[in-house]
Amino acid sequence: MDAHVFPVRVYYEDTDFAGIVYYANYLKFIERGRSEWVRELGVDQVALKNDRGMVFAVRRVVADYLQPAKFDDQLMVQTAVSTLSPARVVLDQTVLRDDQVLFTAQVTLVALDVAGRPTRLPEEFRRKIADTPTNL
Fold first, then answer.
1. Which among 24, 32, 53, 123 could disulfide-bond with 114, CB atoms 3.0 to 4.6 Å apart, if both were Cys?
2. pTM of the model
């Protein structure tokens, strides 16, 4: 399965006193990757919220920190669909520097209504994932 790829540059603000990426910033990097993946699918998240009262939410993250990234590194965030159901999508996300895997995460996304209750993922979202040539 091909993955969506999103480039990320490590800035000084992303690092800790030791000059390596602060652990929580990997979650920000993969969030950006997911947001761009959804955008490239043609899904307007603002319209989903305004017109249908639905938002995507992270239900679960399982993360593994393997190697540190450092100031000025050029990273790539890869996002690929692991599992898709009417109620959730599970994504495998990887942060790499060149070919070296630095961080991996499995992220479960769900949909919530305006009251914060779980709802089904929009059919058009599931269809766009299924129809994407890269199997995203």
1. 53
2. 0.91
By annotation, the residues acting in catalysis are: 16
Structural domain that includes position 10: 4-129
Q: Name the token pair of 118.
A: 């779980």
Place of tokens 């603000």: 13
Among 36, 29, 42, 26, CA closest to 4:
36
Torsion-angle region of 72 (φ positive above 0: left; ψ -120 to 50: alpha; else: beta): left
Number of domains in the chain: 1
Question: Does residue 75 belong to any structural domain of this protein?
Answer: yes
What are 108-125's pLDDT values in tens digits? 999 999 899 999 999 989
What is the CATH classification number for the domain harbouring 70? 3.10.129.10
